[in-house]
Write a structure and sequence with these properties.
Helices cover 39% and strands 24% of the residues. It contains 6 helices and 8 strands; from the N terminus they run ααβααβαββββαββ. Helix 4 runs parallel beside helix 6.
């Protein structure tokens, strides 16, 4: 449900249990035909904050993300590095780091976000290309001339 998905992507919280969160994310992804993105970082991370601001300030990016992915934040900080959870994934080169999972929680891709940056922010075209590449193929996606995605459910 929308409340669970909003809670999963709201903040980097050292007190959250990412294994429990992933169970909720996989249930939502299976139910909605989506993939999962683990957004690993922390409140200490300026680029993590820039990524949040970038997505929230761009309605097209946000709509596309929300239509195709269950976005789940995983805290990595001095308070809680979440080593037991994160040890099952490749080591991150920096933060934020994005892991794309299928609806069953299987790792599909490990994304270094430095390659999506431009100047002191994120490159919209590169970020949209990343999302499109890893969006589930069961949904047809069309970007309108205004840059806002539209999609049709599978028939």
């Amino acid at each position: 449900n929308a409340v669970v998905k909003a809670e999963l992507s709201a903040e980097f919280d050292p007190a959250r249990d990412p294994a429990r969160d992933l169970r909720l994310a996989t249930a939502a992804a299976k139910r909605e035909g989506k993939r999962i993105v683990l957004d690993v970082g922390g409140d200490w991370c300026a680029w993590c904050q820039r990524l949040d601001a970038f997505v929230e300030s761009d309605p097209g990016v946000r709509a596309f993300r929300d239509a195709h992915f269950v976005w789940m934040k995983v805290n990595y900080s001095e308070q809680n590095e979440n080593i037991p959870f994160l040890s099952r994934y490749p080591r991150a080169k920096g933060y934020p780091h994005l892991f794309v999972l299928d609806a069953d929680g299987k790792l599909l891709h490990s994304q270094f976000t430095g390659s999506l940056e431009q100047g002191k922010g994120y490159d919209r075209d590169k970020f949209i290309a990343f999302l499109k590449r890893w969006a589930p193929s069961s949904t047809l996606v069309v970007m309108s001339s205004s840059g806002v995605p539209s999609w049709s459910p599978p028939t």
